[in-house]
Specification:
9-stranded mixed β-sheet; 2 domains; GMP Synthetase, Chain A, domain 3; 13 helices; 405 residues
Length: 405
């Protein structure tokens, strides 16, 4: 009995050892690891057109010593110098220019931390943007969720700016985009847009702000001035921020916005959106193509610069009607400038028809530009004031001075 128990214990021990040994073969080592100290981290990139078919690639590279100095100071300063440096090289494409740039750095260029790519206007006008984007999608390091921008001038000049609030311009642009001021387009989004049914892509258009009095030229920032509209991989036009708001409302991409109504001359009421949705409802009847844009919005009043009592149901209805009128004007403005003047479907109409009427879409997809001007667009807007704000009466007025009708 004791002999059998001893034998069983030995078998269990041997089995356990063999199990651990076999499991060790499944463990992978860090054979392809990349040490941070051996890499030149790319934080931003700019692509400009050069002579002929060449492009100029500019990279914004992190300076490790500057980061170490800032950490030593407790994060309270820039370490006495810039945190990034910018270097450029000209090549036949991004891959060629990147290989030439590598000769200018003693460390291996690493794209994994790059969050913004800026494309110069000259390159967008000449076409060929898609060819450069191919590098970002094909190379294993660049992030597909990095943001794309179009510079109103040379893209490399934007990277040289030194914003006062952020550590470098790339970080400032990223934060500006995440505030949802305009369109927000990633590398992946751009590829999906230009290969979509309409073939239209939208990128935020940025411009360097002029320096204030006594400010150095580079001590300024870039801001979003509108939207660049692409057909396939060529920029065909641009719109300002006001028209952009109407456009992204059609696309159901509006997230942060304020709408102001004017109940009487010299008086305003402003509302911030809590939630907003847009549904595009397509119909085809007797050969007529129609789109109904159904917009709903709920919001809270953030400023009452009038003598009206927003707690009154009658006043609330007046405010809602005024808001609906203002939103409709924005949507119609985008239709006029984009659909009528440019004959561009940047609204998502093609996708809506394709989903609901796939057979009919197959017949027109190759000449959608001819069908688009004939598409009738109707707008139905419904707003709701859910919260009147913390104050029941307008600031500076007595209760007897407030109007309830």
């Amino acid at each position: 009995m004791k002999m059998n128990l001893f034998l069983v214990r030995n078998i269990i021990k041997i089995f356990t050892i063999l199990l651990f040994l076999s499991a060790s073969f499944l463990l992978t080592g860090c054979w392809d690891r990349k040490e941070v100290n051996d890499m030149a981290l790319v934080l931003g990139a700019a692509i400009d057109k050069e002579k002929g078919e060449n492009i100029k690639l500019s990279l914004q590279i992190l300076i490790p010593r500057a980061v170490s100095s800032e950490q030593a100071m407790g994060g309270g300063g820039r370490g006495g110098g810039p945190m990034v440096l910018t270097r450029s090289a000209v090549g036949e494409n991004m891959a060629d220019a990147a290989s030439k740039l590598q000769t200018k750095f003693p460390r291996k260029i690493f794209w994994g931390h790059c969050k913004i790519y800026i494309i110069g206007r000259k390159l967008t006008k000449s076409g060929g943007v898609r060819k450069q984007i191919d590098f970002l999608l094909r190379h294993p390091e660049p992030r597909e969720h990095a943001y794309l921008f179009v510079s109103d001038g040379d893209a490399d000049k934007i990277l040289e700016l030194q914003p006062p609030l952020e550590r470098y311009e790339g970080d400032a642009l990223r934060r500006l985009t995440e505030l949802h001021i305009g369109v927000k387009t990633t590398v992946k989004d751009f590829e999906q847009m230009i290969t979509g049914d309409a073939g239209i892509a939208l990128l935020p258009l940025i411009q360097k702000l002029p320096p204030t009095h006594g400010q150095k030229q580079e001590k300024t920032i870039a801001n979003i001035i509108g939207t660049a509209i692409f057909k396939r991989d060529r920029m065909i036009g641009q719109i300002d921020t006001k028209v952009t708001r109407g456009l992204i409302w059609f696309r159901n991409e509006i997230e942060v916005t304020s709408v102001t109504t004017v109940p009487k001359k010299g008086e305003t009421i402003t509302l911030d959106s809590i939630r907003s949705t847009t549904k595009l409802i397509p119909t085809i009847k007797n050969g007529n193509w129609k789109i109904l844009a159904k917009v709903t919005m709920e919001g809270t009043i953030v400023q009452n610069a009038s003598n009206l009592d927003v707690m009154s149901p009658i006043i609330t209805k007046r405010v809602e009607k005024g808001l609906e009128k203002d939103i409709k004007q924005r949507l119609n403005l985008s239709l006029i400038q984009v659909k009528q003047r440019m004959n561009v479907d940047a609204f998502g109409f093609a996708d809506a028809f394709h989903r609901k009427y796939p057979k009919e879409w197959e017949k027109v997809k190759n000449h959608w530009d001819e069908v688009l001007p004939k598409v009738e667009v109707k707008i139905n807007i419904k707003t709701r004031v859910r919260r009147p704000g913390l104050s029941t009466t307008p600031a500076g007025l007595k209760e007897e001075e407030v109007k309830e009708k």
